[in-house]
Amino acid sequence: MGIEEDVLKWKGIVIYIIGIGAILAFIYGMIEGYYFRRSIAENPRYTIGVTTRFIWLKSGRKIEYSYNVKEQEYKWLGIYKEDIIYPNGRYIVKFSSESPENSKILFNYTVPDTIIEAPSFGWEEWPLDKHVKP
């Protein structure tokens, strides 16, 4: 075997390994996303999230928000929409009671000023008008 054949052989092996790695990363991401969404859906709680800043990422425009559960602050990113108030916009956050770091901010539901704060472990039931439910 010549050097060129060895190089081609190793290039093929490297490409194969990279391909397998990419497939495994994709599968892991899908499984992780599934458990993330399932955790929130099966163990929902609601609290108040406050927008903190606007961020440009390669994946798009995001809004960082923070919320508190049992005196622990969590920060997460939501997908940017044109009419979002930031900083200091107050929106409902749906989170998992089993894994409070798993959350989704509901930008369609602003928290009125009449609601000062959420209970320490959030609301078990939808906190806004019962007719305005996601």
TrEMBL record:
* Origin superkingdom: Bacteria
**Regions that span the bilayer:** 12-31
Sorted keywords for this record are: Membrane, Transmembrane, Transmembrane helix
Return the protein name: DUF3592 domain-containing protein
Q: What is the lineage of its organism?
A: Bacteria, Pseudomonadati, Bacteroidota, Bacteroidia, Marinilabiliales
